[in-house]
Amino acid sequence: MTTKTWKAEITITETDSEVRAEARLRGKEGGQMVGQGTARCNPADENVPAIGDELAVARAMSDLSHQLLQRAAHDIEVHTARPVERLQA
């Protein structure tokens, strides 16, 4: 049995009505991947910072997830010498 640990770190930066999130994944053979996401408050909406944080983080994690799927597809293609049709999250 083997146990591996990958660490995720999320940084949230707020400026006026914009929130930026960065999801950083470390662990795969010492490398790291970074996903990014943003959220903006519509001027007509009530400003609720927690919602902006949630949206920006969700988008950053989604970006990171897609990058990880692309890397896995590439690694499969290299290993098998056959194209990967589609990997889904």
From TrEMBL:
Gene3D superfamilies linked to this entry: Rv1738
Highest taxon, organism lineage: Bacteria
SUPFAM superfamilies named in the record: Rv2632c-like
A Pfam family assignment: Rv2632c-like
Entry protein name: DUF1876 domain-containing protein
